[in-house]
Queue: 2 jobs
Job 1
Amino acid sequence: MDACKISELTKLLQSFGVQSVMQLKPEQLDNFAVAMRDLGAEI
C-alpha cells in the first residue's frame, strides 16, 4: 500500500469515528466495505 492509499484509509477511518478497523462497530462494517471498494480495494 502506498502513502497515498494510507492517507485515504486514515481519512476513511476518521470519517467512521475510529482509529483502526478493529474499532468499527458491527453495524458499520457494510458501509466501511463499500467505502473501501470505492477507494479501489478488492474485498
Job 2
Amino acid sequence: MSNTDIDSQIELNINKYISELSKLIESKTIAIDDNKPEFNEATEYLKNLLTSSGINDIKIINEFGNQIIFAQNNIDKNLKTVLLYAHYDVQPAEPLNLWNSDPFKLTIKDNYLFGRGVADDKTLLYSIIKALELIKNNKLNLNYNIKIVFEPSEESSSIELNKLFKDENNLQKYKDLFKCDVLLACDSDMISEEKPSISTSVRGILATEVTIFGPNRDLHSGSYGGVVGNPITEMCRLLDNIHDLDNKIKIHGFYDNVNNFNEDELIDIDLEDLKKDIEVDDVIYEKGYTLKQCCTTRPTFEINGIYGGYNGKGSKTIIPNYCVAKISCRLVDNQVPYEIFNKIQEYFKNNIRKAFKFKIDRNDEGSMAVNSNTNSNEFRKIVNILSDVYNKKIVFDKVGGSIPIISKFKEVLGCDVIFVGFAYNNCNCHGPNENYSLQSLKNGIKTLVNYLTTN
C-alpha cells in the first residue's frame, strides 16, 4: 500500500478520528488524582477502540491500582514481536486561566489540536490504534506480532507498572507477557515539521523531597526573631549553594562517571529563539557546554517547589516549624538514581547547621537514562520510513525529558528501545495550550502503518 493510498484512507476517516479523539481528551485521566471513574471510562473506551482495530486478546491488569491495558494479536513464531508503549494519563491542566480553550475539550485552530494530553500522549496512543485499524480494514499483512501496553500513570512515576515489576511471585509471568524483540516507546517528540527528527535517548530522573525542621511549632517572630533559626532561611541557604556561578552542581561526586558528548553530535538551540519563546532576557546554563547539551546530555539539579510557613492572604508574622523543597534531577549515562540520592543526602547532612534537623525522601526509585541502538536494523528501518513520510532527511536528536518505566522495560526484557514521537518541541507539553499538529496525527498513523507492514 503506497503512502498516497494511506493518505487517502486517512483523509477519508479524518472526521471520525477527530470525533473519537475528542472523547479520549474529555477523560480527565489525571494520574495524581484519585479519580477512578475517569480511568474506568477511559479504559472501557480504549478497549472498545482496540477491539475495532482487530486486536483479539485484551487484558486489563488492575491489581496494582489504575488499569494497565495490555493487548496482543495471535502470536506467529516466525515473526518478530514489537511492543508498542504509550500512556493515557495526563498532567493536571492548571493554571486554567492561561488556557485559551477548555483543556478537556478538543479544540482545532489553524490545523492544530489543543487540549490536555494531545501531545502527551493521547494522540500518539490513538494513532497506534488507528494504524492497526487501517491495516485490518485494508487487509494488509502485519510484519510483526503486536503487543501493546497503555499505562495509566506515566506522569506520576508509573506506579502500577513499577509495582508489577516488583511482584516477584508473578514477575516471570509478566516478563513472558511483555516479551518482545523491540519496544516502540510512543511517547517522544521531534524538533519541527521543517526539521523532522528522531530521539535517540532520554535522560533518567530522580525525584526527592527534603524537609528541614526548626522549632517544634510556629513561633511569634517578634518574641523569637533574631534568636531562633528559620527553616525556610536555612533551606534557601543550602539550595543557593548547590550551583556555582558557572551553573555547575557543587554536590560532591555528582558528576562521577558522566561522559562528555561531542558537540558536533547535536544541533544546537538558537539562543534568541529560545529567549523569545519563553519571554526571558537571558538564560543560565553550564559553562563549557552548548544549550542543547545542557538540555539533553548533561545532568541537572532543579528545585521544583518550596513551601512552608504562611502562604495565605495578608501577613502572619511567624518563624515556621518546617520547610519543604521538592527537587528533581535529570540523570545521564552511568548515573544511578540511588547513588545520586545518597550524594544529595550527604550534602544536606554535612552542611545543615546544628539548629536544624532534616529528612530526605525519594518519591520513587527513579530511572536511568536510556539510549537506542542507532546501528540496529529496526532503528534504521524507522528512520527510512520517517524520511519517506516527511520527504526530508531525519535528524538524530536527544531528549532532555524522561520516560522512567522504559528504563525498567529495557532492564527486565532485555530488548532494544526505539523512541517514536510526532509532537513538536514547542507543543507546550505539560503547560497551558498544549497542542499537536493535525498533520502530525496523519504522519503518526502513516509511519506506524508502514513500519508494521514492511520488512
